[in-house]
Amino acid sequence: MANRVLKHTIVVFAMWCATVVAQSQSAVLAGKAAPDKSILQTALEQREKQGWEAFKNKDKKAFSAIATDDYTAVIADGNGERDLTGTLDSMKDITINSYTLSDFTMTSIGNDAALLSYKASANYTIGTQTISGKLAVSDIWVKRDGEWRSLHYHETEVQ
């Protein structure tokens, strides 16, 4: 069941990315300039770190401040896709003990959307089990009401 949900999530995510890329290419061809990549990437890296800190500190208000109302996430805990409420609820079961984020890359997908990809190493506890893992993360950020917010977060465990 979890495999089927993961496959479905990956297919939907790929279709969404293809649609957004096609829309952003149309915007560029129409003469709309994308934001400066280095400035935007630095800002999104900071927002990403704020999200990790908020989750680590189990600060639902701070986490909600960087997420859209229609936020979705796929966390490598095997429980599949969840909305913002489900993500906030998972804070009670997942404790991030420590983490490092590295190798950020950003792909601009128009004036108001960007894909931020990076690697994370994390030591976390789920229930009574402590896990150290390496993650590949992709986070789609969108600009809403003048502020960049996370729309879709996806992490996959890597060896």
Task: Give me some keywords for this one.
159 residues, alpha+beta, Nuclear Transport Factor 2, Chain: A, globular
* Sequence of strands across the biggest β-sheet: 2-1-6-5-4-3
**Helical amount:** 25-40%
What is the end-to-end distance? 23 Å
**Beta-strand segment tally:** 6
Characterize the overall form: globular
Residue stretches low in confidence (pLDDT < 50, at least 5 long) are 1-33
Largest sheet: 6 strands, mixed
**DSSP helix count?**
4
Number of domains: 1
SSE arrangement, N to C: HHHEEHEEEE
Radius of gyration equals 16 Å
- CATH A-level architecture: Roll
Q: What percent strand?
A: 35-45%
Give me the secondary-structure category. alpha+beta
Overall mean pLDDT: 83
Provide the CATH top-level class: Alpha Beta
At the fold tier of CATH, the topology name is Nuclear Transport Factor 2, Chain: A
Secondary-structure topology with pairs:
Elements: H1 2-29, H2 37-56, H3 60-66, E1 67-74, E2 81-83, H4 84-90, E3 94-108, E4 113-126, E5 129-144, E6 147-158
Parallel strand pairs: 1-6
Antiparallel strand pairs: 1-2, 3-4, 4-5, 5-6
Polypeptide structure, described:
With 159 residues, this protein is of the alpha+beta class. The protein has one domain: Nuclear Transport Factor 2, Chain: A (Roll). It has four helices and six strands, in the order H-H-H-E-E-H-E-E-E-E. Strands 2-1-6-5-4-3 form a six-stranded mixed β-sheet, with helices on both faces. Strand 5 and strand 6 form a beta hairpin. Helix 2 runs antiparallel to helix 3. The longest helix is centred in the N-terminal third of the chain and has 28 residues.
